Amino acid sequence: MPEDGLSPNEGSELSERASAMGERASAMGERASAPGRHGGARSSHSAWQGGWLTTACHHPSPNHGERPAGALIDLIVIHSISLPPGVFGGDEVLRLFDNTLDWGAHPYFEQIRGIRVSAHFLIRRDGSLIQCVDVQARAWHAGPSFYRGRGDCNNDSVGIELEGLEGGSFEAQQYETLIALCADLAQRHPIAHVAGHEHVAPGRKADPGAGFDWPRLQAGLQWPAERFPRSVI
Ligand SMILES: [Zn+2]
Q1: What is the average pLDDT score of the chain?
Q2: Most buried among 145, 157, 181, 195, using CB within 10 Å?
Q3: Does any domain span residue 128?
Q4: Is the residue at 2 inside a domain?
Q5: How confident is the model at residue 4, as a pLDDT?
Q6: Among the listed residues 117, 111, 106, the one whose alpha carbon sits nearest the alpha carbon of residue 84
Q7: Domain carrying residue 220
Q8: What is the 198 CA–ligand 1 centroid distance (Å)?
Q9: Which of 161, 163, 166, 198 is catalytic?
Q10: CA of 142 to the centre of ligand 1 (A)
Q11: Predicted confidence (pLDDT) per residue in 113-159, tens digit
Q12: What is the pLDDT of residue 22?
């Protein structure tokens, strides 16, 4: 699950961007900008427009900011999310990310009322890929975090949410899309690390959890074990 990693001085930036992006998001709605709506990033020749993958669906989230100047995007953080937890296929996660979730619609939503979060990508159970934040922007998914000797991982990571339940298993199509997406990202950024939210915020976060098959991801990517957390490969 993503988290709000806002520092107080980001609040004003947020409100300005939120109103601007909110208008844009509602005007655009959810749309596929290229053929192959559910094609994910299966092609190794995926096209990008700036930091947007044109083969993904786009559902822009206003919950982002600028990365620090010179940020080295070398980390992919993998999460799991479903709202309510364990219920798949609805639009609640996208509504959480675009700040239109009805907090009163389910008792669980009360626990997260008002949070402003996002991730760059969401991979549905059927493997379809939705992009919510420009990869060049700083999405709000990791919260307080530390990895490979650096803190505040939102600054220089790409956040990928898998629709799923923390600790539960994930679908073959999700691994397929995730593997293609990680490979694609690594062609554009010097990705040297892939880790779970549980690894960048140990003891505080536990997603994606024990049901995520790290060896399967490594085998699909054929990346060296050094790029993954020591405890999982
Ligand atoms: Zn998470």
Answers
A1: 87
A2: 157
A3: yes
A4: no
A5: 59
A6: 106
A7: 8-227
A8: 7
A9: 161
A10: 6
A11: 999 999 999 999 999 999 999 999 999 999 999 999 999 999 999 99
A12: 37
Look-up: residue for tokens 């890929």?
A: 129
CA of 161 to the centre of ligand 1 (A): 7
Distance 168 CA to ligand 1 centre (A): 14
Q: How many domains does the chain have?
A: 1
Q: What's the pLDDT at 3? A: 74
- Reduced to 3 states (helix: H, G, I; strand: E, B; else coil), residue 195 is strand
What is the CATH classification number for the domain harbouring 177? Answer: 3.40.80.10
Residues of the chain with pLDDT under 70: 1, 4-46
Tokens of 180: 């293609």
**Amino acid at position 136, single letter:** Q
Distance 135 CA to ligand 1 centre (A): 17
Res 55: pLDDT: 95
CB 112 within 8 A of CB 193: no
In contact, 139 and 132? CB cutoff 8 Å:
yes
Distance (Å, whole) CA 153 – CA 208: 16
Is the CB of residue 196 less than 8 Å from the CB of residue 208? yes
The runs of H, that is alpha helices, within 30-169 are: 92-97, 107-111
In a domain, 181, yes or no: yes
The helix/strand/coil state of 163 is: strand
Give the tens place of pLDDT for each residue, 215-229: 999 999 999 999 999
Q: Is 161 one of the annotated active-site residues of the chain?
A: yes
Quick check: 32 and 48 in contact, CB under 8 A? Answer: no
- How many angstroms separate the alpha carbon of residue 35 from the centre of ligand 1? 30
Quick check: 179 and 217 in contact, CB under 8 A? Answer: yes
- pLDDT, position 2: 75
